[in-house]
Design goal:
The complex is a heterodimer of chains A (about 700) and B (about 160). Chain A is α+β, with helices and mostly antiparallel strands. Chain A folds into 5 domains: about 140 residues, HPT domain (Four Helix Bundle (Hemerythrin (Met), subunit A)); about 110 residues, Alpha-Beta Plaits, CATH 3.30.70; about 55 residues, Helix Hairpins (Orthogonal Bundle); about 180 residues, Heat Shock Protein 90 (2-Layer Sandwich); about 140 residues, SH3 Domains (SH3 type barrels). Chain A has 22 helices and 22 strands. Chain A has a 6-stranded mixed sheet with strand order 14-18-19-17-16-15. Chain A has a 5-stranded mixed sheet with strand order 6-8-9-11-10. A 5-stranded mixed sheet of chain A has the order 20-12-13-22-21. In chain A, helix 7 packs across helix 8. The longest helix of chain A is centred in the N-terminal third of the chain and has 27 residues. The radius of gyration of chain A is 32 Å and the shape is globular. Chain B is an alpha+beta fold and about 160 residues long. Chain B has a single domain, classed as CheA-289, Domain 4 (OB fold (Dihydrolipoamide Acetyltransferase, E2P), Beta Barrel). In chain B, the strands form 2 sheets. In chain B, strands 8-1-2-10-9 form a 5-stranded mixed sheet. A 5-stranded mixed sheet of chain B has the order 3-6-7-5-4. Chain B is globular and about 45 Å long. Classes of the chains: A alpha+beta (about 700), B alpha+beta (about 160). Chains A and B meet through strand 21 of A and strand 4, strand 5 and strand 7 of B.
Chain lengths: ~700, ~160
C-alpha cells in the first residue's frame, strides 16, 4: 500500500466494506420483499456516507449516484416502504443491486488508477424514474398523509417504553436497593457463565442472604446469556458498602465492558410510568424527549468500536518476528553449552518461557484469523443473480460461516468458491423445476456451503442437490478435448479428475457464467497455491460435492525431524501415522521391482528417500533405518529414512523464489525451516512426494 | 598514458582528479574475484557480503551447479557454484561465497577467492566478440596496471534458468 495515499486507501476500504454491508441487507430484505425501518435507515446512512466521502475525494459521478439513491431512500424513510408499489419492488431491488455493482466497478477503477465512467445519465434516469413513481404514488396518498406523518413518530415512542422496562428491572427491588448492572464485552460469549463467575467471586465476601442477582438461573440455564447481553447482569445488594466492596472484583473480572451502579429510589418508577402514556397523547413533544433517553441508554452499550484495522504487512512482520523468537528460544534452551549441567531454576524458567512463547505464537496467529463469513456471504449474490438469469430456483444454505482461517486464505478462496457455485448452478441444478419434481426432489434447488475446522485444516464443502456428474458426457468430452484416451477404461474417480484439467468444459454451449472452460482448473490452482487440495465426489441424480481442504495457517507447524544421509528433513506431524523398525525380510517385492510393507492388513508401497532424492549417503538396508507410515488425503505409503531425530515446532520458510524455477515443489520439497542450531531442514510435502515417486 | 592511468586510478587519486576534471568520469565500482584462474568482476553495488563460514545445505532435485541454500541471518539464499555453472570442475575445499542482491533476489555465488575492488569506466568495458560462446559474461575489460583481463559477470544470465 502506498503510504502517500493513505486517504485513498481508507476511502476504498471504507466504501468496499459499506457496499458489503449494503449487499447483505439487500439480500436479506429481498427474501421478505420488504425493508425494515432499521434497514431503510441503514441504507440511507450508507449512501450518505458514500456520497460524502466520494465528494471529498472528488469522485463526482459516484457522489451524484449516491446522492440520488439517498434522495430515494429519504422518500422511503419518510413515508415507509408502502410508497413503493408492489409492482415496482423488484425494480427497486434490481436497481439497488445494479448500483452496488456500479460502485464496486468504479472503486476498482479508482484502485487501478483508471479513469472513471463519465456516462451515468442512463443510470441516473432509471433512479429518477423510480423516484418519480414513488412521488406519484405519494401524491395519491396525500389523503392519508396525516396517518403517514404520525408513523415516523411511532418508533421513537416505543423506545422510551422499552427503556423504562429495562430501568424498572434494575430499580424495583426494595429488599436489595443497591444494585450493580454489569455489561460484558460484545460477542465475548458464554455471558451466563461469566455472570456466574462474578456471583462466585462476590460470595467470597458477601453472604448469600445479603445479595441477589438477575437472571437468577445463570448457572444452569444457558439461554440466560442472551438476556445478559441485552439487559446486562444485575447484582443487587442490601447495603451500599457491600456494593462498593463488590465493584473491584467486578471491574477486574474478564470481559466486563462496563458496570453501572443504580440506587433504588421509590419515586423513580412513577416518573417512568408517567412518561409512558405521554407520547401517546402528545407525540410531537415526546419525540425530542425520547431522544436523550435513547442516547442515555446507548451509554450503557458504549461505542462498539473495539475494532481496529491493521495493515496486513504489519501482521506478517509480527508473525515473522514471533517465528524468530520461537527458533531463538529453542536455540537458547537447547544450547550445547548447557549440556551436562544440572540447572533446576534455569529449566523451570525455560519451561515458563516456552509456555509464554507458545501463547505469543497463538495470539499472533489469531490476529490473522478472520471468519470466512465475508467470502460466504458474497455467494448469496451469485446464487441470486444466477437464479434470475438461468430462470432456476435455488437457495444457498451457509453452515459454519464463523469458522476462522488465515486472512490470506480467505482472500484466495473467494474466486474458487464463485467458480464452484456457478458450476453447481449452471450444470448441477436441473434445468427445470419439472425435472426436479419428476426426480422426487424439492422444486427449489439447494446449495450447501459449509466450513469446518479440524484443528489443522479447514474443510470447505460445496454441495448441491442437482443431477450429479454425467460420467459418460464428461468422458466423451475429455476424449474430444484430447485429455483422455478412448482406449483406456477410466474409473469414476478418474473421470471426475478430468473436470479439473485445464481446458475442460462439460457444457456444450458457452454460457455467461460458467463453461468458458477455465473454471475448475483455476479452482485447483488457487487452492493449491495456499497449500490445499480439491476433490470432487458425485452421486448421479443426487448431486455433487466439491471439497476444499486448506491448512489453517501456513507459517508454524509441528514437524518430525528425520535424517537421510547428511540431509535433515521435516515431515508434518499431521501426516505421520506410525513408524516401524523392520527387518528386510518383512518387505514384499512386487512384479515391477517395487517394495511393499504390510501393516494392519494393508499393503503400502515403500519409497526410499535416498533413492528418490539421489542422495550420496544414507542407509540401503531396510533393517538399518526406519519406515515412516505417512498419509495425506488419498495417498498412504511408507517412507524409508535413516533415523528419527525428534519432534519440533518449526517455522515454515518459503524456499528462495529463484529455486521455484526448478519445480522442486513437485518433488515434495515444500519449504525449509531453521533448526535450533541454525542448520536448515527441508520440509516435505507428503502428497507431492508420493506423486513424484510414482511419476518417475 | 597519463589519461589511461587516470581511468584506472585508485579511489583517492580519482576523487582528486574528479575535482579538476570538468565532467566526472562515468565509473562504476567492481568487485574482482577469481574462479578457476579467470578474473571476473561483479558490480559492487550488488554485493551484499562476502562470507567464508556458511554451511551449505544440500537441496535435492536441482541442477548440479546449485549447491544448496545457506541461512543468512534468517533468510534462505541459494548458492550457485560459478565453476560448475561454467562447466568446469568444482573445487571442494577453500571457497568463498559472495552474496549478491540482484533486483531483490538474493543469490550467493561460490568463487575461489576475492581479488580487489576497482573503478572501471563504463566506456572501457567492451562487448564480447559476437561469436564468442561465453557463458555468464556480458563484457570484458583489460586492466592496464596488472595487465590482466577482467570478464564482467552477466547477472541477468545468472538468474535465468534452462
Amino acid at each position: 500500500m502506498g503510504s502517500g495515499n493513505d486517504i485513498l486507501d481508507a476511502y476504498i476500504y471504507e466504501t468496499n466494506s459499506l457496499l458489503e454491508q449494503l449487499e447483505t441487507i439487500l439480500l436479506e430484505s429481498e427474501k421478505t420483499n420488504d425493508f425494515s425501518q432499521e434497514n431503510i435507515n441503514e441504507i440511507f446512512r450508507t449512501m450518505h456516507t458514500i456520497k460524502g466521502s466520494s465528494a471529498m475525494m472528488e469522485f463526482d459521478t459516484l457522489a451524484t449516484v449516491a446522492h440520488r439513491i439517498e434522495d430515494m431512500f429519504f422518500l422511503i424513510r419518510e413515508n415507509s416502504l408502502d410508497v413503493v408499489p408492489q409492482s415496482e419492488r423488484s425494480t427497486l431491488f434490481d436497481l439497488l443491486f445494479q448500483s452496488i455493482d456500479y460502485f464496486r466497478g468504479e472503486v476498482e477503477k479508482i484502485q487501478a488508477n483508471e479513469p472513471l465512467d463519465k456516462d451515468i445519465d442512463s443510470f441516473l434516469e432509471n433512479i429518477n424514474r423510480l423516484i418519480g413513481k414513488i412521488k406519484g404514488e405519494q401524491e395519491e396518498n396525500t389523503s392519508s398523509a396525516p396517518a403517514a406523518g404520525a408513523s415516523p413518530a411511532a418508533p421513537p415512542a416505543e423506545a422510551p417504553a422499552a427503556e423504562a422496562s429495562a430501568l424498572s428491572a434494575s430499580e424495583g427491588d426494595k429488599d436489595f436497593p443497591y444494585s450493580l448492572q454489569v455489561f460484558f464485552d460484545e460477542g465475548c460469549g458464554m455471558e451466563n457463565l461469566r455472570s456466574f463467575m462474578l456471583v462466585a467471586a462476590i460470595r467470597d465476601f458477601c453472604s448469600e442472604a445479603d445479595f441477589a442477582f438477575l437472571p437468577a438461573d445463570v448457572e444452569t440455564n444457558p439461554e440466560t446469556a442472551e438476556a445478559v447481553v441485552e439487559h446486562g447482569f444485575l447484582l443487587k445488594f442490601k447495603t451500599a458498602a457491600q456494593r462498593d466492596q463488590a465493584i473491584p472484583s467486578v471491574a477486574s473480572a474478564g470481559s466486563v465492558q462496563s458496570y453501572q451502579a443504580h440506587d433504588y429510589t421509590p419515586p423513580a418508577p412513577k416518573t417512568a410510568e408517567k412518561e409512558g402514556p405521554a407520547p401517546a397523547t402528545h407525540a410531537e413533544s415526546a419525540a425530542p424527549a425520547a431522544q436523550p433517553a435513547a442516547s442515555a441508554g446507548g451509554g450503557q452499550h458504549p461505542a462498539k468500536e473495539s475494532l481496529i484495522s491493521v495493515n496486513l504487512s504489519k501482521l506478517d512482520q509480527l508473525a515473522a518476528v514471533v517465528g524468530e523468537i520461537v527458533i531463538t528460544e529453542s536455540m537458547v534452551t537447547a544450547s550445547p553449552d548447557l549440556k551436562g549441567l544440572h540447572l533446576d531454576s534455569f529449566t523451570k524458567s525455560a519451561r515458563q518461557l516456552r509456555k509464554l512463547t507458545d501463547e505469543l505464537q497463538d495470539v499472533s496467529m489469531s490476529l490473522r484469523m478472520v471468519p470466512v463469513s465475508a467470502s460466504f456471504q458474497k455467494m448469496n449474490r451469485i446464487v441470486r443473480d444466477m437464479c434470475k438469469k438461468l430462470n432456476k430456483r435455488a437457495r444457498l444454505t451457509l453452515i459454519g460461516e464463523n469458522t476462522e482461517v488465515d486472512k490470506t486464505i480467505v482472500d484466495s478462496i473467494g474466486d474458487p468458491l464463485m467458480h464452484i457455485i456457478r458450476n453447481s448452478m449452471d450444470h448441477g441444478i436441473e434445468e427445470t423445476e419439472a425435472a426436479r419434481i419428476a426426480a422426487g426432489k424439492d422444486p427449489e434447488g439447494e446449495i450447501i456451503l459449509s466450513a469446518r475446522d479440524t484443528g489443522s485444516e479447514v474443510i470447505i464443502e460445496i454441495q448441491d442437490d442437482g443431477q450429479g456428474v454425467n460420467y459418460d458426457a464428461v468422458l466423451k468430452k475429455a476424449i474430444k478435448n484430447g485429455i483422455a484416451s478412448p482406449d483406456v477404461e477410466y474409473s469414476h474417480k478418474e473421470i471426475l479428475n478430468f473436470l479439473m484439467m485445464p481446458g475442460f468444459s462439460t457444457n456444450t454451449e458457452v454460457t455467461q457464467f460458467s463453461g468458458r472452460g477455465v473454471g475448475m482448473d483455476v479452482v485447483k490452482q488457487n487452492i493449491e497455491g495456499v497449500g490445499g487440495t480439491v476433490s470432487i465426489s458425485s452421486v448421479p441424480g443426487q448431486g455433487m460435492t466439491t471439497t476444499l481442504k486448506i491448512p489453517l495457517t501456513m507459517s508454524i507447524m509441528d514437524g518430525m525431524e528425520v535424517a537421510v544421509g547428511d540431509s535433515i528433513f521435516t515431515i508434518p506431524i499431521n501426516n505421520i501415522r506410525q513408524s516401524y523398525k523392520v527387518s528386510s525380510d518383512s518387505i514384499i517385492h512386487d512384479s515391477t521391482n517395487g517394495e511393499m510393507f504390510k501393516c494392519l492388513d494393508n499393503f503400502y508401497p515403500i519409497i526410499r528417500a535416498r533413492d528418490l532424492y539421489q542422495l550420496e549417503k544414507g542407509f540401503t538396508d531396510i533393517g538399518d533405518g526406519i519406515l515412516m507410515w505417512l498419509e495425506s488425503g488419498e495417498c498412504s505409503y511408507c517412507l524409508f529414512v535413516d533415523e528419527l531425530i525428534g519432534e519440533q515446532q518449526v517455522v515454515v520458510k518459503q524456499l528462495p523464489g529463484y529455486l521455484n524455477n526448478y519445480n522442486i515443489k513437485n518433488y515434495g520439497i515444500n519449504g525449509c525451516t531453521l533448526l535450533g542450531d541454525g542448520s536448515i531442514s527441508i520440509i516435505l510435502d507428503v502428497a507431492n512426494l508420493y506423486a513424484a515417486a510414482h511419476g518417475v | 598514458m597519463n589519461e589511461e592511468n587516470l581511468m584506472f586510478a585508485t579511489e583517492d587519486i580519482l576523487t582528486a582528479s574528479a575535482e579538476q576534471a570538468e565532467e566526472p568520469l562515468d565509473v562504476k565500482k567492481y568487485l574482482i574475484f577469481l574462479t578457476d584462474g579467470l578474473k571476473m568482476g561483479v558490480d559492487a553495488e550488488q554485493v551484499v557480503e562476502i562470507n567464508n563460514d556458511a554451511v551449505i545445505t544440500y537441496l535435492p532435485m536441482l541442477p548440479h551447479y546449485i549447491k544448496g541454500i545457506v541461512n543468512l541471518r534468517g533468510a534462505m539464499v541459494p548458492i550457485l557454484d560459478i565453476r560448475l555453472r561454467l562447466g568446469k570442475p568444482s573445487q571442494e575445499d577453500d571457497f568463498l561465497i559472495i552474496v549478491l542482491n540482484l533486483d531483490g533476489t538474493q543469490i550467493g555465488i561460490l568463487v575461489d577467492s576475492v581479488d580487489q575492488m576497482v573503478d572501471i569506466p563504463r566506456n572501457s568495458i567492451l562487448p564480447m566478440p559476437a561469436h564468442a560462446n561465453q557463458q555468464l559474461v556480458s563484457g570484458m575489460c583489460s586492466m592496464p596496471e596488472t595487465g590482466g583481463t577482467v570478464l564482467i559477470l552477466d547477472c541477468a544470465q545468472l538468474l535465468a534458468h534452462e
